[in-house]
Design a protein that fits this description.
Elements: H1 4-9, E1 15-17, H2 26-34, E2 39-42, H3 48-61, E3 66-71, H4 77-86, E4 91-95, H5 100-108, E5 112-117, H6 120-128, E6 134-137, E7 143-144, H7 150-160, E8 165-168, H8 174-182, E9 187-190, H9 192-195, H10 204-212, E10 218-221, E11 229-232, H11 235-245, H12 250-257, H13 260-267, H14 290-311
Helix pairs in contact: 2-3, 3-4, 4-5, 8-14
């Protein structure tokens, strides 16, 4: 399955693993890269020293391309950006902000820059600043989200820019991948599916919560604060939504979720922690290796797209 994205990133399959905070570390990322996709280290709010160590361990485990996701709101973003340039990481994706200030630095280091966008306007701006491709993420995704759905956003951005589009949000199998390609994407980024892979280092409770999830178990908190987050419903989401309805202050709501993702991912607290996952959690039913997950998704997508061409 060759696309402009697989050629650009020099990967076998146009499948990218999301740079999820506390989840996307070198064990998972190296397994994805070795399986033919693009493994990502999620820098999140971690200091540059942690990111540098992760990159070092990544290089020990794979000679395949990989990337680092930079959360631009992080207090360490400047230092992390510098480390990425010094280490000549092949690919960088960015979220929670505008990466313009780092573009020159990364480009001069020969790094492919792929911002995550949630609007046509931002997509056009990133193309203007020489982004290599775009991750177009719909509201179906887990974690911090925008408002537009993947189904509506991908074709609009694919029409608006000339650089390749990578679809994210609501993709769990070959059907989702084939649909994304039909909408104009040339690769997919997936997060929730990779959380439950065998190589993922998250707490077993977190994995089980996703595997047990039903279609109605996805909740969005934080709409009133302008920072919506999608996760699986539990006591924390129940309390948060109740306080939101009652008009609680931003500080009170923030305190409720403080360290919530770490609680779930590391400590396995799936009652009070934040079980970030996409709407497709209900489709994720088994724990596979990264290799089996990627190959099964690609094979199913290829079969479906061949069938559509035949019938067309």
């Amino acid at each position: 399955m060759k696309t402009r994205v697989s050629s650009l990133l020099e990967i076998k399959y146009p499948v990218i693993q999301g740079g999820m905070a506390w989840v996307a570390e070198y064990h998972l990322a190296s397994a994805v890269s070795n399986a033919g996709g693009l493994g990502m280290i999620g820098a999140a709010n971690a200091p540059a020293s942690w990111v540098k160590d992760q990159i070092k361990k990544m290089k020990e485990r794979t000679d395949k391309p990989f990337g680092v996701n930079v959360m631009l709101l992080s207090p360490y973003a400047d230092e992390v950006a510098q480390v990425i340039a010094e280490e000549k990481v092949p690919v960088v994706t960015t979220g929670a902000g505008n990466p313009e200030k780092y573009m020159k630095l990364w480009k001069e280091a020969g790094i492919k820059v792929i911002p995550v966008v949630a609007s046509v306007a931002m997509a056009k701006r990133m193309e203007h600043f020489k982004a290599d491709a775009l991750v177009v993420e719909g509201t179906e995704a887990g974690g911090h989200i925008g408002e537009s759905t993947t189904m509506t956003l991908v074709p609009q951005i694919a029409d608006a820019v000339k650089i390749p589009v990578i679809a994210a949000g609501g993709i769990a199998d070959g059907r989702g991948m084939a649909a994304a390609f039909m909408l104009g994407a040339e690769a997919v980024q997936m997060g929730t599916c990779f959380v439950v892979t065998q190589e993922s280092q998250v707490h077993e409770n977190y994995k089980k919560a996703i595997l047990k999830a039903k279609d109605i178990d996805s909740k969005v908190t934080g709409r009133s604060t302008g920072h919506p987050v999608r996760s699986i419903r539990n006591q924390m989401t129940k309390d948060y939504l109740k306080k939101e309805k009652e008009g609680a202050s931003f500080e009170e709501l923030e305190y409720l979720t403080l360290g919530g993702l770490r609680k779930a991912v590391v400590e396995g607290d799936i009652i009070n922690g934040s079980i970030m996952a996409g709407q497709i959690a209900g489709l994720v039913k088994e724990e596979k290796s990264c290799k089996d997950l990627i190959s099964s998704i690609v094979k199913e997508a290829e079969t479906l797209m061949e069938g559509s061409r035949y019938h067309g």
